[in-house]
Structures are given as C-alpha cells and as structure tokens.
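Morning run. Coffee first, then this:
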Amino acid sequence: MLKKIVNTYIVPPLAYLLILFISLTLRREVIGKEHEKKAKELGKPVILAFWHGRLFYFPFYFWKSNRTWKILSSPSIDGEIIARTLSLFGYGVVRGSTFKNARKALRELKRHTDEGYNTVLIADGSRGPALKLQPGALMVSKLTGAPALPVTVSFDRYWNLKTWDRLMIPKPFSKVIVAFGEHVTVPEKCDSATLEAKRVELEKTLLKITETADTKLQPAGGAVR
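And here it is:
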C-alpha cells in the first residue's frame, strides 16, 4: 500500500521536477529537422517513435505543443509513473501496450489520430528487448495513413540506470542532440510481409540516427558519463 502511494503521488512530481530542472540547463542541437517538416507536410498527424531508454528529454522538448499529443503508456507500475509524470506536463495519455489491452489501445490511438492528435509509441515497447522496434507505430500508420516519424536523443554527459532499457539521464548543463529520421507510412491494405519490411525500415532508420547523434557527441573514445 505504501509503495503504491509513493509511486502514485510522490515519484511522478519528483520525476517531473527532475526532468524540468535538468532539461532547462541543457544546450540543444536539432538535426534532421527537414524530416519532421516533410512528415507534417503530408497533412496528417505524426506518430512519433523513439527508444524507451531515451525518453527523458522528450516531455520537455515537445512541451509547447503538449495539448496536441496522445502518448501510449503501459498499464504496469512503471507505466503508471510515466503516465502521471506526462500528465503533469500536460500530455494526454492512453493506457495499454503490446502485451496488455493492445487492441483497445490501438483503437483509441486510431480515434485520437483521426481527431487530429499526434501520437507517441515507444519504439521498443514497455518491456523490450531494447533497440528492437515493435510494430505498434506502424499498425497505427496502417489504420490511419499517418506517418511514423523516428526521433532520438543523445547526450554528451549522462547517467545510465541499471534497467532493461539502460535509461539515459543527462547531467545538468550537458549538450543534447535531437535527431529526426525519414518517416515511414504503411498502406492500409498491406500484407504481413510488407508490414515487416516497413518495420525493418523504421528500425534501421531509428538505429542509424541514434548512432549518428551518439557519434556527433562522442566522436573519439566514447561517452563521458
């Protein structure tokens, strides 16, 4: 009972303040902005896809447009913390995952996308494996015609949590790179083979922009943590 109270009412406000404080100190560079522009020029909302371990900075980065986003968060304890933290930033949250309430979550995300909301799905899901793209964003694209837009971040100085996703928490006053990649759109009547090909394409793009951002910040000798 005490653990539930802590996770529900104490951890989310602390996480909100931590993200806000650290993010305000970061020096930001954005690369691949043209890919975001091209996706938006399609006239549809976008479906954002990024790695679970690199989610720290995004609530702050997209804060000014928070009312236009609906974010999928798992029904797990960690998902509850994330959902409540995102709610403090003003984002709308949809509860569900590929492991639980998947169909209901997809229907709700489709409805929100059709209503004009941008949506967010963690690329490698709530359980991983890390850096292995799951098809959720592509399923929403297939249902709505909206483009799945890959985006990632990298920091020149950070801590790694000992979690399955190796969550990156930037150190105050470090540099952050936000990198967008080319969007992927899935045809409504595509077969399973085409969907898998699109999944591989999006995964490769997300891995590539992640490597590019990391290399740009740690070109010789790896990360300074």
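The radius of gyration is 17 Å. Good start to the day.
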